[in-house]
């Protein structure tokens, strides 16, 4: 039996999503056949508007509706700490915990040579440029990449770049730290609970 092209096209599209295999993609596609057309239209409109109605904050690179984003504009937040995270969803996890009140910088990935992702493919240079423009106050950069091989390599790269910047510009007021105990090796921050994130922030260590 030949499956209609409209269905196979949708299955192929679902399979391109992370964590979706052929069987899951097929189940999703056939499930949507039973959804009312009005809901499908709403779903399609949401997908269409995903990039149309969002922008990257020019300061922290978070996904937002306005530029700069609300976090960067909030003068009540601690302006002396910048937490570096891999993805916007990690930022959301820390905001949900309510245990951090500083600023952020979103990398949108990690250094991964196996997937041809180097420092220039993510927003590391933007972070270094942002840090280099900070004057006359003590700043802590909290590197909150995931505790994976790629996350650790990215953290070390960032720490080395900032230490080099400190030496060149004689900026002794910069401190670089890494999340501490509480986050198990190989874990994703987006799945961590509030207590675990709090322990990780409080237990951060210098790099």
Word description of this protein:
This protein is α/β, with parallel strands linked by helices. It folds into 2 domains: 5-52, Helicase, Ruva Protein, domain 3; 56-206, Dna Topoisomerase Vi A Subunit, Chain: A, domain 2. It has 8 helices and 7 strands, in the order H-H-H-E-E-H-E-H-E-H-E-H-E-H-E. Strands 4-3-5-6-7 form a 5-stranded mixed sheet. A two-stranded antiparallel sheet has the order 1-2. A hairpin with a 6-residue loop joins strand 1 and strand 2 (63-64). Helix 5 crosses helix 8 (194-202). The longest helix has 21 residues, at 149-169. It is elongated and about 70 Å long. Pfam families: RecR_C (PF21175), RecR_HhH (PF21176), RecR_ZnF (PF02132), Toprim_4 (PF13662). Keywords: DNA damage, DNA recombination, DNA repair, Metal-binding, Zinc, Zinc-finger. May play a role in DNA repair. It seems to be involved in an RecBC-independent recombinational process of DNA repair. It may act with RecF and RecO.
Characteristic terms for this protein:
two-stranded antiparallel sheet; Dna Topoisomerase Vi A Subunit, Chain: A, domain 2; 207 residues; DNA recombination; single chain; alpha/beta; 14% strand; Helicase, Ruva Protein, domain 3; 5-stranded mixed sheet
């Amino acid at each position: 039996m030949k499956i209609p092209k409209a269905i196979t096209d949708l299955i192929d599209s679902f399979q391109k999503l992370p964590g979706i295999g052929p069987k899951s993609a097929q189940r999703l596609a056939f499930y949507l056949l039973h959804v009312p057309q009005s809901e499908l239209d709403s779903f399609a409109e949401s997908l269409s508007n995903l990039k149309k109605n969002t922008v990257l904050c020019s300061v922290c690179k978070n996904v937002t509706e306005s530029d700069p984003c609300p976090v960067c504009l909030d003068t009540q937040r601690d302006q002396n700490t910048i937490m570096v995270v891999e993805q916007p969803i990690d930022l959301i996890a820390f905001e949900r915990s309510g245990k951090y009140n500083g600023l952020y910088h979103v990398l949108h990935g990690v250094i991964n040579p196996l997937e041809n992702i180097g420092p220039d493919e993510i927003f590391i240079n933007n972070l270094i440029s942002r840090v280099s423009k900070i004057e006359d106050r003590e700043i802590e950069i909290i590197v909150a990449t995931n505790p994976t091989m790629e996350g650790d390599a990215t953290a070390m790269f960032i720490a080395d770049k900032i230490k080099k910047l400190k030496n060149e510009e004689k900026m002794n007021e910069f401190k670089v730290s890494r999340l501490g105990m509480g986050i198990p090796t190989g874990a994703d921050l987006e799945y961590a609970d509030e207590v675990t994130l709090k322990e990780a922030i409080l237990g951060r260590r210098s790099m």
